[in-house]
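Hi F.,

I've been meaning to write this up properly since the lab meeting, where we talked about keeping a consistent format for the predictions we share between groups. The idea is simple: the sequence comes first, exactly as it goes in, then the structure tokens exactly as they come out, then a line or two of notes. No screenshots and no reformatting. I'm using this chain as the first example so we have something concrete to point to.
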Amino acid sequence: MAGQIIALASLKGGCGKSTLALNLAAGLARSGSVGLVDSDPQGALRHWADWAESAGGEGLPQVLAGGADPVAVIVEAARRHRYVVVDCPPSLDRVVTRRVLRRVDRVLIPVLPSPLDLWACAETVAAVREAREHNPGLRAWLLINQAEPSSALSRAMSRALSSLDVPTLSCAVRRRAAFRTAALEGVSVYQLGARGREAAREIDQVIEEVNRT
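Output, unedited:
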């Protein structure tokens, strides 16, 4: 049976998509094999994996290069793994993102908690809507990323979220030094021990909510 395929997609750069993809894959790997597909031509995950190897880091999910045909790589990964996590390209490769969304089961759209970022993610939501014409079973959620611990979404921002026709996960991922530390050390937050405990807990909450709803 083919594995569950989860994409991280945003046509806006700088939202933490690659960091979330790697740590979600690391969290899912605790309950089954994971293929992590890097379909972003910038190759952030491949660079992370290379850095991990040079730094002596171990235990990261295998990063698979999307190459010229990321959909074929995704399909093959789904045959081999219980889960497949896909890091989609940014706005420079909208065609690739649209092709990927037609093949995956679920998609998370990371969005930073600022009005400009909320408005910018509307284009990604439109891409999801278009993909559902070919992939009607596609499920999608907005995921608030890099939330500040002492701030809350304003009423206006909450209205903007509700107008996008895609539900927002009740859990959010906070801006934490642990995510930057993990990248510097070539590991996931799960491998940081006590330093990454709270960050790992938030990733677990995302996984639990996506699997439950």
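Notes:
The domain at 4-212 is CATH 3.40.50.300 (Rossmann fold).
The chain has a mean pLDDT of 87.

If this format works for you, I'll send the rest the same way.

G.
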